[in-house]
């Protein structure tokens, strides 16, 4: 008589392999304007514990453009801004403009995943110029998109087929509940899911949930060595700053406190969604990403409160990931960019990276079982186009309309934090024994800035004009190549 035991064992092994080969779920949580350099992750105690200590913590993650809409477009497309064409937060600057809707959205990450069988969900701030008209953006099965820019109350969401206005429901809490409901339903299906949740924190108007008001009222903004310092070796917009008066510093302290307080609700959101995944036995087959679109400064170099500058406060972003195959408490020093997220997510979904994507997957880095993952040399591109126009003139401030300045407000003592020619490209170079940034400004001076972050982590001393001519020429050539790169030619 032939024994069936080996056959049964073989069948069970095959079934086990099938179960283990089920495509993973993916949950991406994207905060707004959350820095790393000024301890922006301090309020995220549970997130750090569950994702950072429970997975991988990236120490050199960067936005490709320190402003919301270009950065979010890069995340969704895997492309640098010079290729996707979204240069600022306006429709004329490409933010949710015709080119995005016609050419980019059908090639973006959500649509690719949807076409490969993923059940997709979006909740929160999409792109700054999305106002809920027409059909739901391509790629989303379930869509709860905020009209316009971040806010916490008195907002409208496009909820699938219709627009719904909310007056007094705290947005982060609503997104938490919508996402939790989706996860409970999606985890009952055999389809994998991709869920993206984009709460408003820590973007202005910095409105914490009532339960969190005053939690950090005893805290003041971090007094870094660059705080309220006017440095003459910076590009003209920063060089022209005046020292901030006490009234503006008090405003900065208040904003700093409230930014942290808004993030407490995001930390709770992460806890809730992790709990749903655990309760539905889906946690171990789900990659969970936490990051932000860009950083933020508060008082550095006498710049009151904003992003848009090529300093670590504005370009360095949090990135924490846990999921299948990622060893707990992994620390990754290799430089990565938001443009790398789409290729990495596609690798998890067993989908080839399209040739038009400029980013590269760091999936293999995450599979290393050492706590300190081996370091790989990398150069990243940071690029920004100044937004100043005649329309950004503020009559409450003394500067003439013809100067085309922007972000000038009395709350900031009329310090203008952007201008028409605050345009630059930077090479962020992180290699063995080298941690530098080199920037070229497209202004009237063709100004240069460079910093050795190993020796000068607060970027107090511009060394661009002290570099050897050959060294400066090599940086410039590498930067030129990156600003013209596309696809695989961006891998340097």
From TrEMBL:
Residues 24-351 form the Sulfatase N-terminal domain. The conversion to 3-oxoalanine (also known as C-formylglycine, FGly), of a serine or cysteine residue in prokaryotes and of a cysteine residue in eukaryotes, is critical for catalytic activity. Keywords: Glycoprotein, Hydrolase, Signal. The modification 3-oxoalanine (Cys) is found at residue 68. Gene3D superfamilies: Alkaline Phosphatase, subunit A. Belongs to the sulfatase family. PANTHER family: N-ACETYLGLUCOSAMINE-6-SULFATASE FAMILY MEMBER, SD21168P. This is SD21168p. It comes from Drosophila melanogaster (Fruit fly). The gene is Gns.
């Amino acid at each position: 008589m032939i024994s069936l035991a080996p056959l049964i064992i073989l069948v069970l092994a095959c079934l086990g392999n099938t179960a283990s080969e089920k495509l993973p779920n993916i949950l991406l949580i994207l905060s707004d304007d959350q820095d790393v350099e000024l301890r922006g992750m301090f309020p995220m105690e549970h997130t750090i514990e569950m994702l950072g200590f429970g997975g991988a913590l990236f120490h050199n993650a960067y936005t490709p453009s320190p402003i919301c809409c270009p950065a979010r477009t890069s995340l969704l497309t895997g492309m640098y801004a010079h290729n996707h064409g979204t240069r600022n937060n306006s429709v004329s600057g490409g933010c949710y403009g015709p080119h995005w809707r016609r050419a980019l959205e059908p090639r973006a990450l959500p649509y690719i995943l949807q076409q490969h069988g993923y059940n997709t969900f979006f909740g929160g701030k999409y792109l700054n110029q999305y106002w809920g008209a027409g059909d739901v953006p391509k790629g989303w099965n379930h869509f709860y998109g905020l009209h316009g820019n971040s806010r916490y109350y008195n907002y409208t969401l496009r909820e699938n087929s219709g627009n719904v206005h909310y007056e007094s429901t705290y947005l982060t809490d609503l997104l938490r509940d919508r996402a939790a409901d989706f996860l409970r339903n999606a985890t009952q299906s055999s389809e994998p899911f991709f869920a993206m949740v984009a709460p408003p924190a820590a973007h202005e108007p910095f409105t914490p949930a009532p339960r969190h008001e005053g939690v950090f009222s005893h805290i003041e903004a971090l007094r870094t060595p660059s705080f309220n310092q006017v440095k003459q070796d910076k590009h003209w917009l920063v060089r022209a700053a005046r020292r901030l008066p006490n009234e503006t510093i008090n405003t900065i302290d208040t904003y700093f406190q409230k930014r942290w307080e808004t993030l407490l609700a995001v930390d709770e959101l992460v806890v809730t969604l992790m709990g749903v995944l655990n309760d539905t036995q889906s946690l171990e087959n789900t990659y969970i990403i936490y990051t932000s679109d860009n950083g933020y400064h508060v008082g550095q170099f006498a710049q009151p409160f904003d992003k848009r500058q090529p300093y670590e406060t504005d370009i360095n972003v949090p990135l924490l990931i846990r999921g299948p195959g990622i060893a707990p408490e992994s620390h990754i020093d290799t430089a990565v960019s938001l443009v790398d997220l789409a290729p990495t997510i596609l690798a998890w979904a067993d989908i080839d990276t399209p040739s038009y994507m400029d980013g590269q997957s760091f999936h293999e880095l995450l599979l290393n079982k050492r706590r300190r993952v081996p370091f790989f040399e990398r150069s990243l591109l940071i690029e920004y186009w100044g937004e100043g126009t005649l329309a950004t003139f503020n009559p409450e401030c003394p500067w003439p309309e013809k100067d085309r300045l922007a972000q000038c407000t009395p709350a900031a003592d009329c310090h203008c934090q952007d201008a028409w020619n605050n345009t630059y490209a930077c090479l962020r170079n992180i290699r063995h024994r080298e941690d530098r940034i080199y920037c070229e400004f497209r202004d009237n001076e063709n100004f240069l800035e460079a910093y050795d972050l190993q020796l000068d982590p607060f970027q107090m001393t511009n060394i661009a004009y002290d570099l050897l001519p050959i060294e400066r020429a090599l940086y410039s050539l590498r930067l030129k190549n990156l600003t013209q790169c596309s696809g695989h030619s961006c891998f340097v």
